[in-house]
Specification:
Blueprint (H helix, E strand, L loop, with lengths): L2 H25 L12 H10 E11 L9 E10 L5 E4 L7 E6 L2 E2 L4 E2 L2 E4 L7 E10 L11 E3 L23 E8 L3 E4 L3 E7 L2 E6 L12 E4 L2 E7 L2 E7 L4 H26 L9 E5 L6 E2 L4 E5 H4 L7 H16 L15 H16 L8 H17 L3
Parallel strand pairs: 1-10, 16-17, 17-19
Antiparallel strand pairs: 1-2, 2-8, 3-7, 4-5, 4-8, 6-7, 9-14, 10-13, 11-14, 12-13, 15-16, 18-19
Helix pairs in contact: 3-5, 3-6, 5-6
């Protein structure tokens, strides 16, 4: 036998062996244990059992802060093997008002902030799970006249039942029912609007496949600024009442986003991967920014700079915008498998942000700035056990 045919045979044997091992893993018993939190063991079992996942989520936001947000979620999934299914929902069992599996009512079984759906109500192949619930407020940052979600790192399950792990990416179709005086944005562009009885119902284009921590939406009494760069529209939502400050910063904020997108498209040879890019400037946001796909959230004071802003403040703003925009490729389009690799997406975003921004500030000693910003922290970790 020629060397060529030995190679073909070897490849065939490797492929058949791999297929056999995968089938053996799929056909072996998969056990999902609802221990506290989202354990890596639970995540691995679900990844092995679940395919073709999708969410259809509806939330009804009342006008009064003290009233609960009610929701429904339809979860479509393909089970590779029948098994008891464990969803994440960090709310009391009484928060679930109904639970259907493939159209059949199920008892609510809640364990350690999980919902357990018995395997005998599911089957190999396509399944539908419908849950009506009262949403938790912890990850929704509710205020009197606005709210915003913040699901990072695994807090989506504090709001709605889901699989709160980064490697089970799924599209999300979102419908928000809000008071008629409010506006809203989400990952996807708005595709439907209905006004009735002092309420507005908005539907948004389903996202591309995303991990739950990258789902994002905000609703409330926001002002909306529109910009356009190279044919790309941007919408900026904010609550700043100083119109002069808004006017002084608006065009620069739009410019910085477009510059970052253009640079990244050229560098990666990959077009911007989502349908739109809007952003919300929040007055007391917990971080400098958060890279929800298509809907970045920012801390407003770091974006709306004073006329007397220093060069360091201007550089920090440009770096934050470049960092969050870079995440659309590094973290959103390509996502870590598990949280022990979260450093990779952050390092790539910082690396790209520096390449985008540094040439615009040639008078800054960027090497010294990098040293002072990073070396002390790195060395202090190195010194630990």
């Amino acid at each position: 036998m020629s060397r060529k045919w030995y190679l073909v045979l070897a490849v065939a044997l490797c492929l058949s062996s791999t297929w056999w091992m995968v089938q053996r893993r799929r056909d072996s018993a998969i056990v999902m244990t609802p221990t506290a939190g989202v354990s890596q063991q639970l995540a691995a079992a679900r990844k092995l059992a679940i395919g073709e996942l999708a969410y259809d989520l509806t939330l009804s936001v009342p006008e009064r802060l003290q009233d609960p947000i009610r929701g429904q979620v339809r979860i479509k999934l393909r089970l590779l093997q029948p098994t008891d299914l464990v969803l994440d929902f960090a709310q009391p069992a009484t928060s679930v008002t109904s639970l259907l599996a493939n159209g059949n009512s199920q008892p609510v079984r809640s364990e350690n902030d999980h919902l357990v759906i018995p395997g005998n109500s599911l089957g190999r192949g396509d399944n539908l799970i419908d849950i009506a619930f009262v949403a938790g407020n912890d990850a929704l940052n509710r205020n009197d006249d606005y709210l915003y979600s913040l699901f990072v790192p695994a807090r989506a399950s504090k709001t709605f039942p889901c699989f709160d792990q980064p490697d089970l990416k799924a599209p999300l179709a979102l419908t928000l029912e809000i008071p008629s005086g409010w506006v809203a944005l989400a990952n996807g562009p708005e595709i439907g609007r209905r006004v009735s009885g002092g309420r507005t119902t908005l539907t948004f284009l389903p996202t591309k496949a995303l991990p739950t921590y990258l789902f994002g939406f905000a609703a409330g009494t926001f002002s909306v600024e529109r910009g356009e760069r190279n044919g790309r529209p941007f919408y900026m939502y904010h609550r700043e009442t100083d119109t002069e400050k808004v006017a002084a910063n608006r065009e620069t904020i739009f410019d910085l986003h477009q510059q970052a997108i253009a640079w990244l498209e050229d560098y990666t040879d990959r077009k911007y991967p989502f349908e739109k890019l809007d952003f919300v400037l929040l007055p007391a946001f917990q971080f400098a920014g958060m890279e929800h796909a298509g809907a970045i959230f920012y801390n407003a004071p770091s974006m709306f700079l004073e006329k007397t802003a220093t060069q360091e403040q201007q550089l920090a703003r440009a770096s934050t915008i470049a960092h969050e925009t870079a995440h659309m490729w590094f973290g959103d389009l390509v996502t870590m498998k598990w949280f022990d690799d979260v450093w990779m997406k952050e390092v790539f975003a910082n690396f790209m942000a520096a390449k985008i921004v540094n040439p615009t500030f040639p008078q800054v000693n960027h090497e010294l700035r990098f040293l002072l910003s990073n070396y002390p922290d790195a060395y202090s970790v190195d010194r630990t056990a």
